[in-house]
Amino acid sequence: MLSIGSTVLTVEDIERAGAFWRAALGYVNRSEPSEDWVILDPPGKTGWADPGASIALSVTGYPQHHPPRLHLDLYAEDQTAEIQRLLALGAREVDWHGYPDDADWIVLEDTEGNRFCVVDTGPFPTG
């Protein structure tokens, strides 16, 4: 059976992107970064099967495409506070006009232009 190990984000400046995502998620480097690759894990993750999604950053030289075909959804109990914190870390608001009236997410992008949504986690929907 397969499981998702890491989501890989393409970046131009691995140090800047690493600093942003470590601060945003509280993650740590799995090992010493190379010039073009680093995997970030939740703190305390020591094995492949441990819970928590990992993020890898890869310098590939490919330009960013917008809109991207893949993005992260980050869950927030206090969406407003998290958005302000992420903006202070260097995230940028995306000028996007596709929100439905009942949207519970806001689209941001990281320091490298990778888009992600900050989702307001209200009551968990059940069956």
UniProtKB/TrEMBL annotation:
<dbReference type="InterPro" id="IPR029068">
    <property type="entry name" value="Glyas_Bleomycin-R_OHBP_Dase"/>
</dbReference>
<protein>
    <submittedName>
        <fullName>VOC family protein</fullName>
    </submittedName>
</protein>
<dbReference type="InterPro" id="IPR037523">
    <property type="entry name" value="VOC_core"/>
</dbReference>
<dbReference type="InterPro" id="IPR041581">
    <property type="entry name" value="Glyoxalase_6"/>
</dbReference>
<feature type="domain" description="VOC">
    <location>
        <begin position="3"/>
        <end position="121"/>
    </location>
</feature>
<dbReference type="Pfam" id="PF18029">
    <property type="entry name" value="Glyoxalase_6"/>
</dbReference>
